[in-house]
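Practice set, problem 2.
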Amino acid sequence: MTRLTRTTRVFARLFPFLLAFLRDRKRWVVLGRGARRRPEAHAVRAERLTSTLAALGPTFIKLAQMLSARADIFPEPYLSAVSRLQDQVPPHPSNQIRALIEDELGRPVGDVFETFHEPPIAAASLGQVHRARIGDREVVVKVLRPGVEEAIALDLDISFRILFWLNILFPNHHIRALTNVVREFSVRIGEEMDLRVEAENMERFQRYFRDDPAVDAPEVVREHTRRRVLVMEYLEGTKVDRLQERFESGDLKFEEVMERLTSLYLRMMMVDGFLHADPHPGNLLVDREGRVVVLDWGMVLQVPRWTREAILRVALAVERDDLDGIINGMYQLGMISPEVARGDVREAAAEILAIMGRARTAGPQRVQEVIREILDTFYTWPLVLPQELVYFFRAAVLLEGIGFRYDPNFDGLGLIRRVIRSLRREILRETSREPVTMAKDLLGEVSQALRSFRELLIRAEREEFRVRLHPRDAQGQERFLHLQARRLLLSIFATATAVITAILFIAVRSPFLLIAGFAVSLFLFVFVFLIPTHLLENPLRHARGIRMR
């Protein structure tokens, strides 16, 4: 498919939804109040959007999966509809899969594997998985689909071009958040299509949890793993959403399984900083011994130490009802754009504090309800949800959904609190700096402050104080003056058009000329006073940073 054909198809499929979302905010796209629609209309549109994304292929399926937890971008019912989008496609022809394996390994399939099962046990948009045998060892072979890399690169290029114009025409925190998601996706999808990265992720997980007998991941067969082929140990188990019979038979204990799952994700997030970013029932199994087996390590999130520290500080600020501490942590985590005034987000922080306060005092409450209220706040206010919390929230909602599947009285928040108490020492050790390091940092900051104060006194004595504007402030003032100058010129032109039209009408007595001239003049006046100011600004400044990685 050529670039022009694909661009036309993507634009034709997505433009009606873009126009509908814009009219939800302003009836005439740039003017008026938002169009009022019944909940049923949004539900129908959500289903149509989901089917459209599925029809557009692997790029948009994977992108939709990332958006399914971003309530700061999409509200309900769109999130629920997109989250049900299944990454299942018809399998690729076996002869092409065999040819790809032989090209990667440099040997015929029969020389590498004792047996190779043609029908795949799983087929997704990026790759498919086959069972095989090497000697007496059962393995699975994950193969990247032929041509998928070129298709995704083309779709990403088209997506960035569309976002370029959206950032020019409709700059708001929803568009900025969507742009950040696509940027992140462009990086993560590249890693996910290199199966050597997935092999490294599994090996790293096994190093972190080598002393924990309750969890496991497949062992990689390194000698047969390449960029587009991954060979790993075959592990059997029951999907976490199909454990009812084992619970009823007494083979497993419900409380132990849920505690293991919750402890696993909390430890990955806050202790190891290495989070499995694709949690769904198909990737979480429980084997015969009761161990939790985690599959599909293509999407992994690195959570740096400073991010874990900031998350912990925000959590502690919430616990002590410290509004300023919450706002400081939100700025540090990048939830708030530096251009947004502190006062503008104070109410949003207060709303988050109130939500968490209700969660502490209202008795058993669903994790999903608390997260939904928090995400609604992010959608309403100019806040951007950090990607680390996005994936952790997805895992929390998944685990609670599994719990409610087996126990209608499952207390997800209570379980999280109990697990946090059990992991408290490890979390504090990994997210808090050593006392000696903290003392050195504090002494350094004090020394720097004293030097700055001394320089301030010396300059005061020499009368060398100068007032300097931050470049952003200077640019803002310059932009404001340019806007006013453009508005003034347009107003003068509109007035001159009206006067000239009146003079010409007196001379030629043409009603058509009078109507046309006054219509042009009226349009210019409307454009000056009603069209949002961003349409008069330099569009290139909005596009800065929108680049394909």
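Problem 2, part (b): a different protein.
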Amino acid sequence: MKNCSIFFSLLFMATIPLATHAQRASYQIIPLPKEIRTDTTQVFTLCEGMGIGYDANNQEVARNAEFLCKWVELQTGLKLSLSPNDKKAPIQLVTEPQTAKKSKKVYKQESLDEDSPLQEAYTITVNKKGIVLAAHKPVGLFRAAQTLRKALPVGTHSSIELPFVSITDHPRFIYRGVLLDCSRHFFSVDVIKQFLDVLALHGCNQFHWHFTDDQGWRFEVKSLPRLALEGSVREKTVIGPGNMRIYDNIPYGGSYSQEDCRDIVRYAAERYINVVPEIDMPGHMMGALHVFPNLGCTGGPYPVAPHWGVMRDVLCGGNPETLDFLKTVFGELCDVFPSKFIHIGGDECPKERWQKCEKCQAKIKELGLTNELHVKVDGDGGRGSQDGRSAENKLQAYLNHEIEQFLASRGRSLIGWDEILAGGLTENAIVMSWRGTKGGIAAARQKHRVIMSPNVFAYIDHPQLKDYGKQPRTTDSYQVSCSKIYSFEPVIPEELTDEEQKCILGVQANLWSEHVAFPEHAFYQLLPRLGAMCEVQWCRSEQKDFESFKARLPQLEKLYDKFGYIYCHQVE
């Protein structure tokens, strides 16, 4: 903690010079649009007071116009005006269904269904008449507005020259996510909103909210009020390095009310970000077991874990009260979160207790589950080797199936970490592949939807610099640098057929918080690595070039400076 505070006290904010003459916009932004056709010999000059025309009858379009107006003033000093229903205003926001069709013509393999990235397609045109942002849907206008703001020079300007341009763009993947772990360390609603602003700036559309773990239960369940009240508080927190169990002996807690969660959902939705809540089960449940020891195999007592790692005590797979508890929790979760994706975790669930538990073994016998240890699925980049289709893994698959059916009755789809492969996948499960990519490849071959999140490319709680002394202390593990992230290719043609490749929904970066206790540290871990990750999420592989990325990064970093985001100033 002390080391972290000293480090951040040394960070400095870049001084942004004032400009008295017209500055020029640059369309070389992050993420890079798919097609940019520029005529640098001609410019349109953006001046104070110019109007933004839009359809005032469309609430989403109106909100996007307000966002654009605010962003331009905050980062350039130019005050534009809102001109509802004014088709002669020099800046226009227009919804055009044919925008997506234009992109479909260019990228013939894309479909126009509701889950297609083409739903976010947009164009930007700058000519002598002014600036036109056009999109298939309002979400595309939001993406276009973000592109335009990132193209503008940061500072205080009397006018800005925009070279004539035609931009055509849409994201590569429909799922572009970031996880924030709020169980190990708790982050306030205001910090999460700032986190969402950063995600929106980088074109992300999924916020994976990790609520519960062995170190604390953070989601309010109104029918079980003790759960968040008592399950959120651990008596102390480990502070020693490595395996040294040195504790601070300070109680640590915090939880989110359901109204807090609804507030975050509203805020995220205005920025076209879906909130994917995660209740990790049946492992990582010490927070719940502390409150309800009857749900464990041994009866407890179960303290909320004060240290990190994988705990042996998990929910009892043979206790009928376990499913009642889970359905109560996921029922209220669905009431609060409209997301069609609900994450159940499913990772790192030791079966030691189940192997010795009479209730678990009786349930295994009742279900007729047997061992098939010759079947084995391994990750290719991390820990946690599975033990195949053991009877106990099949019992976990049974629990997963029950929850999947429950979620399906609420119109939701289940996401689980790749360990859910071990006992056999349930019918419509989505696999989030974290232990390398092999789990995702195996799931895609079974025609299951997949989100790639391999730890060696996507775990941004790991160090980003080779020299540990130049960054806040985090895991003593492998480096996940900007260049490492940027090199990741989520779709591997030599491993998957064309049809199987369509199962890859997208990519996610994960920010676990065992060693990230403060907001400043969280943003330092996130930035500028999210810039590298967002090009993996947004751009096709043939479009990516790391040297080009590094050349474009300073323009984005000026926005980080402007809004006070802490970030790593060194890129490796």
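Answer key, part (b): The longest strand covers residues 35-47. The chain has a mean pLDDT of 92.
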